[in-house]
Structure formats: C-alpha cells, structure tokens
UniProtKB/TrEMBL annotation:
Lineage: Bacteria, Pseudomonadati, Pseudomonadota, Alphaproteobacteria, Hyphomicrobiales
Family note: Belongs to the LysR transcriptional regulatory family.
Protein's name according to its UniProt entry: LysR family transcriptional regulator
Span of domain HTH lysR-type: 5-62
Superkingdom classification of source: Bacteria
Record bears the keyword Transcription: yes
Keywords: DNA-binding, Transcription, Transcription regulation
DNA-binding is among the record's keywords: yes
InterPro entries: LysR_HTH_N (IPR000847), LysR_subst-bd (IPR005119), WH-like_DNA-bd_sf (IPR036388), WH_DNA-bd_sf (IPR036390)
Length: 319
C-alpha cells in the first residue's frame, strides 16, 4: 500500500496542514473540498496512520501527522528542487543575474564567489540586494531577484523552493557595561524581560504577526544590522547577532556572550538556504552561484571564521 502513495497526495497533505482546513487547501489547490477530503482519507488508509483529528470544527494534525508532515515536506521539496534544477539547466544564460542576500550571511563569502563568477560569466552583470527577514524573500516573490540566500524567515511563502546552503552561528550579546553582562549563571527569561531587547525589524509584510526570537516586552527595532551592532556596543540593549559579526567584539571585551535559559552554549545554528520560484528557477549563472556557495561553505573549516569575514561584515551598513 505504501508504494501507492503519490506526490499529489503529499502535496495535498502539506497544503491541508499549512492552510488549517480542507476547504482552504482546496482553494489553494483549485479543487473541491470533497476532493481534498477524499485524498486525505485515501492517504491515511495507505499509510495506516490517522493524520488529522476531525473531531473539532477544523481538522487538526495528530501527533503522528505532525511527524509525517516533515517527511512529506522533504519529499515534495526534493521533487520540486529536482524539477527546478532541470528547468534551469535546460534554459539559456541569464542576461543579468539579480540575487538578494540575507544580512546575516557573510558578505565576504559572496564577494569571494563573485570573483569567480566574473571569470565564469564575464558577459553577465551581477546585481545584489542585501535585506533581512521577509525583505530577503520579497524580491524573489515579485521578480526583482531570481534567487535569494535567506535564513531568518521561519515560514516560506508557497510557490518557492528552498535548498540548504549552510548555517550561521547566532549568539545573544550585550555590552560589557550592560547589567546582563555581569549576571551569574544562566539568565532566565523573566530577567531578560526587564531589559530593552534590540530587534532587527522587517521591511516587508511577510513576517507580520510573528515575533522572531523576541523575548523582552520592551524592544527597540532597527532595520539595519550595522545600526543594531552600534547600539549593542553602546550598551543600549541586548540582542542576537551573527557570531562572525561580533566575534572580535567578544574576544576584545566590548561585548559579552549571554548565557540564556533554553539556548545552548555557543548560541544557535541559523540555517541558510537558497530560495527561488518553483516555476522560474535560476538559469545557468544563478545555478552556478548557488552550487558554488554550497561548496564554499563546506570548504571553509569552522564554516565562517570571524577573522576572515569580520572586517567586511561590519564595515558598512546592512539591512
């Protein structure tokens, strides 16, 4: 029975989970609600697992359904990625390559790859945008960029495919003069809530209604990573930063890494992915750059050594 599970069933499963109801999934897939309900019932029969609890007004994922949803997403994403790559490879060379880069990604890595890009594609102009959160996704959605290198938006809009590129270390810091810097032991959330948290804000509406890694009810919001870095150094608040940006500040005593409850020592790993429209994947130049960035991140021991990327990352304004 499991061999009969189809890609269409998995797409419908993902749509139903994302939309929160079979009727909303039907509208997204341009089908009838009865067709979606029947597809889900058939998938549950084939898997031998109840994916949705239908006892309430809206279907809710069961515990087993939540586990299998991650597998379904991986399968759908893998197939979409394969189709997109094939389409890009078979297409012609881009007249111009436009890309958007998440502000958390080391820009010096982009510069390093751009040197090789100029040799590989001398007739293809390169245009780069640097944005944060949904601002790094919006140019891909509206066609201003053929792909994005993003890592800070937890929910990707439908119609886009993502490929894992690397990860960036993300740490919570405060100035050495800040009260939190002298806190002994793990800092609980109720203590953090008593101090201003500096938060990178979204220029787009894609993260509207969602707070990403915001702990304190008292926040100052900045749309520029360079400004946030300067405010942290000045002791105006605490907040999260990519380790490659603040590594030297920590080593030289200007900033202190905070030990926070529920955050592992050394901070978090922020996944970085390449995203692009399923229906319009990058051409040969864009595909080359994505693959080269993957290769570049794997070649660098310790991912992104701070001494290599720090000077470029904080020498100018970022989003």
């Amino acid at each position: 029975m499991l061999d009969g599970v189809s890609l269409d069933q998995l797409r419908t499963f993902v749509a139903a989970a994302d939309e929160g109801s079979f009727s909303a999934a039907a509208r997204r897939l341009r089908r009838t609600q009865s067709a979606v309900s029947e597809t889900m019932a058939n998938l549950e029969t084939q898997l031998g697992v109840t994916l949705f609890d239908r006892s309430a007004r809206y279907p809710r994922l069961t515990t087993e359904g939540g586990v299998l949803l991650a597998d379904a997403r991986a399968v759908v994403s893998g197939v979409d990625g394969m189709k997109a790559r094939a389409k890009g490879i078979s297409g012609g060379l881009e007249a111009e390559l436009a890309a958007v880069i998440d502000v958390f990604f080391p820009i010096s890595a982009i510069a390093e790859v751009a040197h090789e890009f100029r040799g590989q594609f001398p007739a293809t102009p390169l245009r780069l945008l640097v944005e944060a959160l949904g601002g790094a996704v919006q140019p891909v959605l509206d066609g201003r960029a053929s792909f994005g290198i993003v890592g800070s938006l937890p929910v990707l809009p439908s119609g886009l495919v993502a490929e894992r590129v690397t990860s960036v270390d993300f740490v919570m810091v405060a100035a050495a003069s800040h009260p939190l810097a002298g806190y002994g032991g793990l800092i609980p959330r109720d203590e953090l809530a008593q101090h201003v948290q500096l938060v990178l804000t979204d220029r787009s509406d894609l993260s509207a209604g969602r707070e990403i890694a915001v702990i304190s009810p008292s926040t100052w919001r900045l749309a520029d990573l360079f400004a946030k870095h300067a405010f942290l150094i000045s002791g105006l608040g605490w907040g999260g930063m990519p380790l490659h940006v603040v590594g030297n500040d920590i080593a030289e005593g200007r900033l202190v890494e905070l030990s926070i409850q529920d955050i592992p020592p050394g901070g978090l790993k922020l996944p970085i992915s390449a995203i692009y429209p399923i229906a319009a994947p990058p051409g040969p130049a864009g595909r080359w750059m994505i693959e080269r960035l993957k290769q570049c991140s794997n070649e660098m021991p310790g991912k992104w050594p701070m001494e290599k990327v720090f000077s470029t990352s904080v020498s100018g304004p970022g989003r």
